[in-house]
Amino acid sequence: MEINPEDIALQIEKAKNGKQDAFKFLLDYFWNDVYGFQLKRVRNEHDAEDISIETFAKAFDKINSFDSKYTFSTWLITISKNIQIDRTRKKNASIYSNTTDTSHEQVRKIADHAPTPEDKLIKEQNLTQLLQYIKLLKPHYQDVINLRYFQEMSYNEIAENLEEPLNNVKVRLLRARKLLAEIIVQKE
């Protein structure tokens, strides 16, 4: 299916209204652009993934400030570049920390509602087989899947447990579910 600029604009508007499926669409559609950009810059898969997750978390948190006169992918890449520059500066200054300046009200705009198709697919799988598939994920994705689905923690509890900002946890879980669903579909 061909995605045109009007489709993207519609999804951005839905995201501005807090629609979870729009956030998922934007993450899925633009993930490779942001991740690829960061992988070229930092030359480390884990760092590129972390920066990409933080990029989407920040972008989703600030989605209402996006100006449609600009290209969404350019806006995301700019956010991503700034995050990477900030991380490098902090690392070089030996004051590296994972903090966010996001208010609790803004973070809650990414909804935690009904199960997504990935959630339904995950729950329908045979537990033993599912655990084998989860082991194919990178450890930080395994962690959020385990905390959410097996320990049944809320987003807030996961954020506390991992000592990560809430919006980063939401994006990481969204990404983990997508990757797990792709593994399940691929293996079956």
TrEMBL record:
Keyword entries, A-Z: Sigma factor, Transcription, Transcription regulation
Protein name: RNA polymerase sigma-70 factor, ECF subfamily
UniProt organism field: Aequorivita viscosa
Family listed: Belongs to the sigma-70 factor family. ECF subfamily.
Pfam families: Sigma70_r2, Sigma70_r4_2
Segment forming the signal sequence: none
Domain (RNA polymerase sigma factor 70 region 4 type) ranges: 129-180
Occurrences of domain RNA polymerase sigma-70 region (ranges): 32-92
GO biological process: DNA-templated transcription initiation
Gene3D superfamilies: 1.10.1740.10, Winged helix-like DNA-binding domain superfamily/Winged helix DNA-binding domain
GO MF annotations, alphabetized: DNA binding; sigma factor activity
Keyword Transcription carried by entry: yes
